[in-house]
Specification:
- By secondary structure, this protein is of the alpha+beta class.
- Helix content is about 25%, strand content about 20%.
- The protein has 8 helices and 14 strands.
- Strands 5, 6, 7, 8 and 9 form a 5-stranded antiparallel beta sheet that branches. A 5-stranded mixed beta sheet has the order 11-12-10-14-13.
- The longest helix is centred in the middle third of the chain and has 18 residues.
- The radius of gyration is 20 Å and the shape is globular.
């Protein structure tokens, strides 16, 4: 039996990128090694870089592979090559850190070599860290909800976005849900983008209350939850063409809207997506050419507030928003009120 190699050096962008422990199994059930993961990202680099280019990135590291425990590393490793770019990012806590910014294939391979199976960029570009250029609609089904319902809610989200002047770009999450991104002109703050996402979630819920929910507390949810808080500052979502830590190495795969009604997320894996991309091209290739205005959705948010719908709960550790309801699920509030 041949001994496992300690490293393999790839020539990328005129640089040498060392891949440590290239034969290490990252997906044992599928027999996928660390080097195969790196080569996957290089095979889909055009689409993968479109999803992360120029964006600060939180490093989600699976140093023991997909079946091991992952940890988030916000700060860029101190022992990085001089050609790996960083930018100073400030967090809601008031702290700051230098985060990795990927711009080319060499940097992409270097990040994957750290054990980053999936990629988690922020919705801002390094040149303007205060104004997101991406509204992210994260469709998260509660347990037991069929995939067909997720697809139906995605199509409804597309409809609401279009009615408010935004183009939706769908992709599978690589897990149980779907994502719909809308490219924005970078003019609005994180709070405004989150307010717009909340307004969209509430509008989808209003149109299809049996299928979708905007309720933050799990005990109140049903159907497909539209997670508006994924647009809060310092929240990240797996990017286009990111491999997810599932046994079959599923991929968060951009789709055309014609594909959404019949798509099967199990069909999109590390071993199937490169051929799909080569044969069909990238359905998300036009996303950067379609930035839109947030004003129509913010006008919807204003109408909802006038109708008595205040802010919705924020994630833990965020400053309490103006008009935000109590940060406790309804069942706990009832207990407090009765005591």
């Amino acid at each position: 039996m041949a001994a496992a190699r300690k490293r393999e050096v790839l020539e990328l962008e005129g640089r040498e990128v060392a891949i440590s422990n290239p034969d290490k199994l990252y997906f044992p059930a599928a027999g996928i090694t660390k080097l195969e993961l790196v080569r996957y990202y290089l095979a889909v680099k055009e689409g993968a870089l479109r999803g992360v280019r120029d964006r600060p990135m939180a490093l989600k590291r699976y140093v023991d592979g997909a079946e091991g425990e992952a940890f988030f590393q916000k700060r860029a490793p101190a022992s990085r090559p001089p050609w790996v770019d960083v930018v100073e990012l400030r967090f809601p806590s008031g702290r700051s850190a230098q985060e990795i910014v990927v711009r080319d294939a060499a940097q992409l391979a270097w990040v994957v070599n750290l054990g980053c199976i999936d990629l988690h960029p922020h919705p801002v570009r390094a040149g303007d860290l205060d104004h997101p250029d991406e509204l992210r609609v994260d469709l998260d089904p509660v347990p037991g909800v069929p995939w067909s319902q997720v697809r139906e809610v995605a199509l409804l989200a597309r409809e609401v976005l279009a009615e408010h002047g935004l183009t939706g770009w769908p992709k599978t999450s690589g897990s149980r849900g779907m994502h719909v991104y809308a490219r924005l002109l970078p003019r609005w703050t994180y709070q405004e983008v989150r307010a717009a996402a909340l307004a969209l979630a509430r509008e989808v819920e209003r149109r299809a209350p049996a299928l979708a929910t905007s309720k933050w507390w799990k005990e109140e949810r049903h159907g497909v939850f539209l997670d508006y808080n994924q647009n809060a500052k310092d929240r990240t979502v797996a990017s286009a063409y990111a491999v997810r830590p599932t046994p079959d190495a599923r991929v968060s795969t951009p789709l055309s809207w014609d594909e959404v009604p019949g798509c099967d997320p199990a069909a999109f894996t590390l071993r199937t997506v490169p051929a799909r991309l080569a044969e069909r091209g990238d359905p998300g290739a036009g996303i950067d050419a379609a930035p839109g205005s947030l004003e129509p959705l913010l006008a919807l948010a204003a109408r909802q507030r006038a109708d008595g719908q205040g802010d919705a709960p924020w994630p833990p550790h965020y400053a309490k928003g103006e008009g935000e309801p109590p940060r406790a699920p309804p069942s706990r509030r009832k207990i407090r009120d009765s005591s």
